Records
---
Amino acid sequence: MVMTTACVGELRDGRAATRRRCRGRTALAVLLIASMARAASAQTLFPSPAGAPAFGRYDLEMCMGAVTRIRNSAQWNTRYDTLTAAELLLMADPPAVAQVARQCVGNRAVLQLPPGQRLTRLQVLLAAQADSVFRTELNSWATSMASSIARAKLLISVLQNAVLDRSAASAHPARLGLAEALTQQLDSIGSAALYYRTIAYNDLLLAADQVGDTATYRRVLARAMPTYRAYLAVDSVQQNAAGQLFFAVMQVWTPRWRELMDSLRARGPAHYLTVLSRMQGELASAAHMSASDSVAWVQGARRWVGQSAPALTADYWVGRTDSTATLPQRGKITLVAFVDDRCRGSCDPYPFYAMLRRLKRRYGGALEIVLVANTWGFFRLRPPLEPEAEANVLGWYFLNYLRIPAILAVDETPFVTRAAPDRRRFYQHSTVREAYSDTDPKHQNQWSPSGLNMTTLVAPDGHILYHELLGGNSPEQDLDRLIAAVVDYQRQHPGHLS
Amino acid sequence: MTPPSRRTAGPPKRLSSRTSVPSITRRFLTQAECETIAQRAAELVKADSSLRLLVDTWWSAELRWARNRISLSSERRDNDLTIVRSLPGASAEVKTNQLDDASLEGASREAERELHGARVDPEDLMEPPPRFDYLKPAIWSEETFQLPMPDCAKAAIAAVAPAERAGMLSAGYIEVRAAAFAAIDTRFSRTLYAPYTTAQCSMTVRDPRGTGSGWAGLSSYDWGRIDCQSLAARALEKCLASRNPVAIEPGRYTVVLEPQAVHELVQHVIRALGRPAAELPSSADPFHLRGVDSKLGLKVIDERVTIGHDPMHPDLGVLPFTVEGEPTLPVTWIDRGVLTNLAYSRSYALQWLHENSPATLRMAYHMSGGASTVDDLVRSTRRGLLVTRFSNVRLIDDAALLLTGVTRDGLWLIEDGKVSKAVKNLRFVESPLFVLNAIDELGMPERVFSPGAPAIVPSLKARDFSFTTIIDAV
């Protein structure tokens, strides 16, 4: 544009030579502007990567969008399992993210990210496996911070949102070594960053436990305990029950988890339950608050563990070939999961359903999954349904659409209808849901009965090994370990638990 | 309902060319044109997820005057497209008013990118919507659609003339609109299209010295039902009668509220008629009773009052469907003082009532009344205030539906059954529910000025209406 303006000035002078030269330069400028306009148009229309030049804004946007999605994958992973292939075209898969991130780094496009997107830039670098560039970038950012507290906040933010971001693990593995180095960097800040150091240790310990890195866990725990103690000793820190319980779990429960699993694997469910009970006592003692709400909650939630599982009954069975055997069936590990298709809970538990699929894939015939659902008179926004029709729809939804390899038990939900003009239906608990719920009935809400995704693992001998009220993503690791141990025990002692 | 045909010749031009920009020569898009645009948009998007298109296509002629002179005369038209892209449990929308391929594709892509960050919404699931039977309310007037702009100007000039002759200043607004709303779902091959017209005329006549002001206005789907000259005469009459007001002590007064004033209070009652909010525990909803119970079945206002809406009423027509494609059906909200219905969505109906029909809340309504005229109401009042209308009405407490606002364009003192003098405007703090429980007498229901949401409301006389402050503004 500058070139064009200059040429206009020279043309006004009327010099022929300049005019000729300027004609050429003007044509060049027009071509340049035209190509820029075409590029701008291409950016506006978001052409597919296949048709675009080697690298463009589209790729970077796609990369940034993908990284954001991975960060928010509590939402997005929920969908991966249930979307059709056509719908998947709308979003990048995690492996594609790593590929695009590498492209972004290779083309130095990542440096074009605006200053406000610095954390995203670090995430892109991690996704691209460019760890050394990541360190350099982070150090440069940290040294630019005005105070040690600001530096600590930055480090903890990067640790949580980039290095140990659980949801990003599908795009890049958690960097335990890098995280450990960051905790050391935080330690060097000293007592000013005490609070952030405890958070960093918590996250690192949980990540190490999750990936089964025992050596790192023990090493970090040894370094973390003085920090925890120092933090709890600070006058302004409230000595709350939840904090004490958390540290007690870190000391008592997690390091001995494998020992507990070994007892199950080698000596069977009965011995496991004895050890578990003893450990619960130790935990309460270590937390110095056996009467506190938190410990009561822990014990309350596991009240069912060790009991005989109630028999499952249902008004309608879907996907069941043998209709005579009592469920949970002796000799088989049974996972009883209470599911619901209504309200927000119907969308949030997609990861839970994915977990069920993974467990079944891992353990095949050794594991029987029984879903328990209730009729509510409607399914999503379809017209009202009669119970039998609804049972069929629920069967389609859970077994076909969500592809959960399970048997579905559908119970008709008892309800009362109010007189006009109110006319509302108020639902009550079905027999099975009542039998498996350990919540006091007077605290149960009629509309949202507790037990959505309530999971109960029943050993082949009929005893409950695990009972989780809250559901969600968390129980997979626990369930996986328990089922693996029982399967090992069954293999070593065939017929012992039948 | 006649489909728009003005300035058309032959069938609509096909718009499916990838590069062509449709040349729209009509006042608004026809159903076929809307469907063609949706088809083109569906072809342009790659992924096989849902695409919905909401089209608000409109033509509007407006005329504004102030200080007895026309200050604006315009004719506008536009097409507001909303492109909605959905995945199971989430949707995102982008708006555009450009109909060319590049814009449609750009908007669709933008919606897809928005979709990536959208929260999961369980009600936004791709279930095929059921087929409803839609009513055919009276919302289209060929006369309104065909109204030539000079006729609007003539009406305005005729409205200004009496005020000018009387040495007063007139200001007003006339708008005539012809439009259509289309909701097209390409996935389920469903097209809903409804053309409609609206017309409104309102004016204020003021004393040049700023001591008096009068107002009159009316709206309808049919321009033929609005008599601008009688409105002008009424506004002038009120202006002349409201000059040189005197101050009176604020306090509780018996009031005679003209229909427009009643409407400005009662429309807040209509807005509050939502059932889920009324059944929310600890809700601050005026119709919440306790726990999860609403006041359904309980007497909430005077038993002489019934409030409801029948879309087939010739003066209360509204669009026959909502944006979600749900039908607008007749409903009685309050039957002889008893709350008999509250609005709810189809989702609520399925979950709680085992039904498939929603009770859609439209702001259009009919309120029952008596046989008295405003003059009759005044004659039967020993001491009170006659209110033309309210202005700047605001909600200050949800639970009690407490409102505040000021009187405007004519407030008079009534003494011994006669209007004795104009009084200065007053601020009120009052709940319409209280007013509707303190009714002495009801007047005849009549149409009021309520563009977009027609209403038929009576005048009424109520006791103990609370005025709190004198307002010097005229």
---
Amino acid sequence: MKRILLCCNAGMSTSLLVQKMQKEAATRSLEVEIEAFALNEIMEQLENTSIVLLGPQISYAKAELEQACAPYNVPVAVIAMIDYGRMNASKILDDALALEEQA
Amino acid sequence: MNEELEAICFEIISQVGAAKSNYVLSIAKARAGDFEAARQMIAEGDKLFRDGHAVHMKLLTEEAAEETKIRVTTKESDLKGTDIITGVAENDSVQARTGAVPLLLLHAEDQMASAETTKLMALNFIDVYQELLSLKQERLTK
């Protein structure tokens, strides 16, 4: 099963987005696990993860996370500001799945 | 919380959050000695922050307008002898915005405040790194 992790400062706004993405995944009957974590929690979660998505407010941590994700071969991507701002769960899920397949 | 307010909060978080990211990254640029890029990142951050701020400002203006409306209604209801509190509670949007402040809105404002602080810090860091670099160069030429 695919596992998508979302990351932001406190895991607060992303947890709302996660709910919307889970709903979207359910309507598409996708076998995917989606979870939100704060930056200081996510480092212990990288095993068995398919992709890590960062909120635009934490894109400065991309390099740091890429380094941490490298041993697990987990791709890291920043959610586009416009999609995040509009909580476009469907587009964010599409992009994540496409990126995960490329990796 | 209504969906409209949720969308507004997300827009603020997205804009000012991206601004904060720019401010943080500008420090890394300054550290690497690229001060022009550092200041460019501050300028880009400012643009994002202004957009987020405009959304927040609109929310404030709307709330102020709603409050004025309540005051007028209150006066009328005073004359009729009706309960002021009921008059306020009847207005759903005001209750949603001023009664209980949604946690997400607090979070959006928290992001704004933290972006502002980060900018002040970043500007100081850029200055300090610039001074440090010129001191290093001075020492080398001696």
---
Amino acid sequence: MSGGGPPRALCAILALGSLACTTDPARDSGEPSLDGPEWAIPTDGCELSPGSFEDVTIQQTEVPAVMRVSWRTAGVAASGLRFTNQDGSSELVATPLGSQGEHHEALVIGLPPQADGALRIVSDDGSTTRCSAALGFTTGGLPPSFPPLDATVHMEGSLAPGFIPTTINAVPDSYLVVLDKHGRPVWWKTTGYTPRLLHDPEAMTLTAWGRDPASEKDDEEKEKEKENAEGGLTSWSYDGESYTFRPSGVHSIDHAALPEGGFAVLALEQRAYRTAEGRRNIIGGRIVELRDDGSTVPVWSVFDLEEPDLSVEYPVDASVGEHAEDWTHVNAMGYDPVQDAYYVSISFWDTIARVDRPTGSTTWLLGGERSELEEEGQLVSGPHDISPLPDGGLLVFNRWIGAESCAAGTEIAIDAEAGTARAVQHIGTEPCVDNPYIGGANRLSNGNNLMVYSSAGRMIELTAEGALVKEIDLPTGAWFGYAAPFTSFYPEG
Amino acid sequence: MLPRPQRAPRLRRATPWCALAMLLVDAAAGCALPADTGGPEGCESCALEDQHASSLGLGLSVESTPLSSGEDALLDWSALGEDMLGRPVERCEALDLATLYLFGDASEEEVLANLSRDRMGQSEVVAQWTCEPQGCGCSLADFSFLGHPLVPALDFTTERGGTWLLTLAGGEASGLRSVAFLNPSPQPGADTLPLTDDTARAELELQLAPRALEVPAGSVDYEVSWAGVNIDGWGLPLDHYRLDRARLDRLETGVAELSLELLALDVLSPDRWQAEVAGLTELPMHQLEGSAPFEGVDRDATWLFTLWCDSCAISLPRVTALLEAQE
């Protein structure tokens, strides 16, 4: 499971700030320096005291752009890092100071590959805040099979801060990846196909659906049934060197993190019906929760809404092992922790279902023939990803397949008491982008919108007014999964 | 409220029976090559720069075959003996990844032009489907994408338009092995697309750089660095991280012949050495491995140093340079 980057750096700054680099044949490209760029790392609020930090090592991890820094403070103190990119293209980050002690370790994460970084160690012993000299280092590079990203920033000053975890599905290798605000990869891991990568700053993990990494060496890709049976959620540490795997036994379509820990999974559900013509396998969808106590709890099923019309022949779903018909095409879910509600995209119905999590009941259906809310115009068409908004609205990625318009985000305001829904805005570009598969729309921290045209291998960031801020394109054959933006790798405060 | 984004009007274009794209990148011609010296003692770190890197012009000729609109058809590569770069296809069963791309607005000529530069963008692709063949062919109906099967009656139609490209990969050689255009035709057409050695053919023109890199003769105690190469053989920015293999060929062929015969490098080269270079921008030459130990370059042969991207679609060197022994 080694990342294919350039040689690693392993250097140490010994007591009193003297620099020593050990020459590890496999790890010899770093250039830590006491003459690091002082300008890049402010000493605001700390006393410059290089002698307070000893045995400093800066080392690439299994994810070559992530650096592990370890050090010792002269006495018991809480200690952490301030770091950035020497060219100023990454924001200054301060890691949490951590617990009191003499031996400390922290990860530098969020810098692009082969970047010259600079860091300063900070400590607080309760009476004095001290900081080290600025130290330089170089992050590792991308593996050769990583698809080249064509990222263009049009409005630097309008970029939303933060990161975009997503997946890049390609031949010969697919990747879990986190992009920075400029569209540069800062974290990556090879994987099989998976739609979503979720970040948990408290656990400092990144979680995706897939096979147990321990079985990566199997000839797995052609064994769909085995894949379904052994699928589960893998939570990777930032350094890529450890993981936890939660098997589920369900065929996941999408997943969301739960506030108390654990995950909700939108999964395929297959039921068999006997007809005069014989047995028919009909696929719907359900939500199950994989809770931290190890239990799997069913919450909701589309079969609870109605039964399939057996006079209709539904399209074949080629992703399951035996002949099965895709009745509803549930394809994405969103979770709103404020309302404790799930939203499920039922694409063949052009419908969004709101599910009350505590009861598992369907609160309402929006869109299509089954809509229970009165709509102003058509709001839902071939939906995919759903992002709940803080004001109770939704941002829905509509594919508009076969329509005059094509893929776009639709911000929807919902008045459940009045039983109405209306479009606040449609989000996209002219001319628009055909995107028949997957896709998402996300609200970013500064109010910008991120449009993910997944199968078109394209992401764009737009201001709230619709101006193009940046665009990221993939080469032919490569395409994105969903995005789930976040602002910091580190816990708040 | 903003209106919904509208689809741009789509232009219909005539589809040629056979398309040819030939891209020649700016290059200075030259056969008698001056060499950069590494100083009186020779270089220990010999730096390749853009002035040493040669230019490639790749031309692809790819057949376009009409098939009946709305009907299933068999894509059959059982007769494929050689791939589009002239490399032998060991067993047709080894070609185990077939992908169909539907380009919305790009013509066959435009698709070929971008393919020739290994710079096709996914945003041009309206839909794609893959097939894992059980033998040496796939029917259109065998293709799917994330559980969505290709339905010929709905997808492979004249009405839907677009440009259909089949790509084949797999086997011992890296990159694409063959490609073909499919053309849904309103007229009754064939129900089989047989891929042969002539379905797709590449022509390559190598324009050697005006300068060779001079390196110590008869020595392996130096390294070749390519950190200073910024432009690839196609004349596009070089993604250094994508380079994964270095190769050094000792050729009896003269420089002029080499320009025309790069596709036959395996045949031309009696001796070759290789090394993995993923993540590196320099290679200590003693790390080169071949059937015989590498003992350094001499002035009795032509020495060709190439850097490759084996995970790229087009398996051709990204950087090509001549090394010249400094006595």
---
Amino acid sequence: MSLLFDLIAALLLVAGGTFGLLGSWGLVRFPSTMTRLHTPTMTATLGLWGVLGAALILFAAAGEGAGHEVVVALFLLMTAPLSALFIAKTVIWRAQRQNGAAGAAGQGWSGLAPAGGVAGGGAEPGRPESDHHLSPAKHDSAGNHPD
Amino acid sequence: MTGFLIPAAAGFAALCFGLALICNLWCIRRAESVPDQILALDTMTANAVALIVLIGIIAGVPYVFEVALIFAMTGFIGTVSYGRYLLRGSVIE
């Protein structure tokens, strides 16, 4: 029985380490910030879950389990999307500011201007300024109310 | 936790997460914008949490999970406050 626990834990450890390395390698490989956002939030969190699951099995088999690993795993599950959300908001805000649509605080989604043409988050430096962002009376087609 | 299997697997995982930390450092060095650096720093926090848990597995110490939890909280608060600073110009308004 102990050998079975050890086998499962070793498998989880190897899988977790591989996923963690892949998550950070994707951070090196991917081309833009918005695509780079995917690998730490999903793959690295999965790798961390593998390690935490192995720790849970090992310490429970040794009779010392207290469930702390579950708390850490749930905390990561809750916080990884939030930090990704904040980084994505920063990227969108910088792209909008480069496109000349700054000063739109209080409008749209959480302080950002209503989304006009920031598709993909890539900075489009040659994009002409449209007055779509700058007219406050005009709402976007998605129906976002400026409150 | 005696035997050969668990230390070998945990050592492999620690090697993987150490390489991941080196990748993150390279990302911070090479990043072209500040959100990239925040992202790499956030990933570094996750990898450091994994390394702390691996130290606990290898040494057989069950007390490292509080350390891991507090480190994860610190990393999350750091990421959020840095992003908020970039968005709003201040952390607490």
